[in-house]
Amino acid sequence: MRRSQLFIKTRKEAPADEEAKNAQLLIRAGFVHKEMAGVYTFLPMGLKVLEHINDVIREEMDGIGGQELRLTSLQDPEIWKETGRWSDEAVDVWFKTKLKNQTEVGLGWTQEEPLVRAVRPFVNSYKDLPFLAYQIQTKFRNEIRVKSGVMRGREFLMKDMYSFARTQQEHEELYEKIKQAYFRVFQRLGIGDKTFLTFASGGAFSKYSHEFQTVTDAGEDTILLDRGKGIAINEEVYDDESVAQTGVDKDKLEKVKAAEVGNIFTLRDKYSTPLGLKFTAEDGQEHPVLMGCYGIGPSRLVGVITELLADDKGLVWPERVAPYKVYLAGIGDDEEVRRSADEVYDYLTENGVTVLYDDRDERPGEKFADADLFGIPFRLVVSRKSLEAGGLELKKRTADATEIVVKNQLTQVLGSPGQD
Amino acid sequence: MRRSQLFIKTRKEAPADEEAKNAQLLIRAGFVHKEMAGVYTFLPMGLKVLEHINDVIREEMDGIGGQELRLTSLQDPEIWKETGRWSDEAVDVWFKTKLKNQTEVGLGWTQEEPLVRAVRPFVNSYKDLPFLAYQIQTKFRNEIRVKSGVMRGREFLMKDMYSFARTQQEHEELYEKIKQAYFRVFQRLGIGDKTFLTFASGGAFSKYSHEFQTVTDAGEDTILLDRGKGIAINEEVYDDESVAQTGVDKDKLEKVKAAEVGNIFTLRDKYSTPLGLKFTAEDGQEHPVLMGCYGIGPSRLVGVITELLADDKGLVWPERVAPYKVYLAGIGDDEEVRRSADEVYDYLTENGVTVLYDDRDERPGEKFADADLFGIPFRLVVSRKSLEAGGLELKKRTADATEIVVKNQLTQVLGSPGQD
């Protein structure tokens, strides 16, 4: 992409009405636009980051046999009344609206009920199980306060997977497989070393659920972390019992702020029994299907990665999620420099490397500041000086040192296009 | 994908409450699930078709320089009040809901207003123009009646592109470029020969707009079509003037039902003037930006393709949008047949051909009926008989004839994986 074609611009100042560091930086860099509190438009480069996160999640969910579908946002009250989750007393984050005939409908804030109803016609026998279904879809939650930028929204993207099993043992095997896939997702997104499996409150059917908590001061949760064991306990369930259960070393626990980036839940038959999702086992007996649910927030992850990795110059993206791999700039009013930069742009593009090419007539300082603010992993500069030194000047976003590389070595130096 | 892992099943009977042929077939085949009237969940194979349609649209929009972004569904009333489109009197398809503090918000049914506000900070000078921005996003419209299956929904997917130009001539050039991209989209989706550029009512600033109408009895529009010239006039603007203007041959016009699959509009400064989207030209004067908007309905296209191509055995998908390219079935209770079928499955998968492998213990008739109902372009059968004849039996979904092919020729016979 040529920078002169890209319609966004950067700003020097953060918007006055935005408290969260992630939203301040993402708006300054032109990655997102705030529509209302907790409601953000993803502009072209922000959308690229979001979709790269979705790609990683999708690969890992498909890799363990997940089948992707897409439920709807408009929600039929009938199915929610059957589980007692329609009333505003039971669930305080509903957005509700009305059809022309005055029938009330809701906007999906989670999707157990409609999913169970959608898969029910396909489940009769033990032969129809187990399976995993998931979606990456917009959720709506009518939160009273939102002040964490894209980390907590009234409208946000969520990957929600649901497991359907015949026996407790089969459920536990699926649960473990998904847990491992979650570790791989966070590792590949560049936040694996700061993200910890955390014991949290479990709801009706299990003492604990598992959260994946990323350590950051911008987080809304507090966890007690045993860094050596790589396990944490959410403050809300911290007591002698949870310490004993999780096997953490009580003397080594650190109390830190963290952001929940994923959670996995055992649901047992909480939804399948009231909604009639059952199967006939090999012995001819009917049993309820045993379910689990598994969430990750891709739009929240855009915020968490920003909070965790950004520095005083701007955003910093891990390679796998960066909007482009290379920020290419020609410096100076020199025909040879321009021709060389054009050649490098064509060469990289043909070799599958994504490049944002700053072909504007701007001062070097402006171009460098933008390259840093955008957080693009590699900066490549063509100038009279670099050409005299034999090539291009390469700088990593996270390093101060520069080196001279020749064009034909570039793809080797930059690594393969699809690497994590 | 192994059929035994896929959680959906086909049904023999169409649902009693569904009038539209497209929804009847899509539900029978397990491609969609009806949540409410006009609100459909896309199950795994339906989502694949939808995403393949999106891929084609995205390639063509990116190919002409479109920059993808994603606006939000929740809509701030303030920006809509500025153009007079907030009130239910002005716009009768709004869904509205309330934040906890009782502020009313809407659900996006189109997005000119928020898009203009989002791009406004980036447009000052003639140097910032022109550009094309687009999204593929869920729209909500509170329709009184919906009876056309996925062809008209209360919640549906829409690709909406917007052009931003400096002069009328520049606008017209962009408009023409997008029009040509639309022709390519419908050609690649397999409905090009039934889809015609149609003159329709133009709104405030141009006498006519252009619709792309696909001839089908399931359509809600009536057009007067000059098949020889490949141009039509929507009944709503048919008169001597439109006949003269479009140059159709009045004596050759056919009156046919058609479904609108795309529309393109000149907006001039209808939104840019009230919303203050202006630029300083080279002469130092301020001008409003000249806009156009360009829609395609991907979820509607799923329905239109179904209506147009399905036959009495079920769905028929063009290769580019089919959920899988090949339906592979082993027939008979024979170890060699099973081993051969497994080998073919592995071979095709490794060669990038998408395969739905019916590995179930079912009668041949059941398997063949499902292959037809799903509408998968190629059916491959391995049986004792086919092995004795030297290979596999290949049948196209749209042909009656079968032929015997050997495994190593398969990729050649089936064509390259990505071809249109």
Question: Can you tell me about this structure?
Answer:
The structure is a homodimer of 420-residue chains. The first copy, chain A, has 420 residues and is an alpha+beta fold. Chain A folds into two domains: 21-309, BirA Bifunctional Protein, domain 2 (2-Layer Sandwich), CATH 3.30.930.10; 326-414, Anticodon-binding domain (Rossmann fold, 3-Layer(aba) Sandwich), CATH 3.40.50.800. Chain A contains twelve helices and 21 strands. Chain A has helices spanning 21-28, 44-63, 77-81, 112-119, 168-188, 240-246, 272-275, 298-309, 335-350, 364-374, 384-388, 410-414; strands spanning 32-36, 39-42, 66-68, 74-75, 95-98, 104-107, 131-140, 155-165, 195-201, 208-215, 221-226, 231-234, 254-268, 278-280, 286-288, 290-296, 326-330, 355-358, 378-382, 392-396, 402-405. In chain A, strands 9-10-13-11-12 form a five-stranded mixed beta barrel. Chain A has a five-stranded mixed β-sheet with strand order 18-17-19-20-21, with helices on both faces. A three-stranded antiparallel β-sheet of chain A has the order 4-6-5, with no helix packed on it. In chain A, α1 crosses α8, α2 runs antiparallel to α5 and α2 packs across α8 (298-309). The mean pLDDT of chain A is 95. At the A-B interface, β1, β2, α2, β4 and β5 of A face β1, β2, α2, β4 and β5 of B.
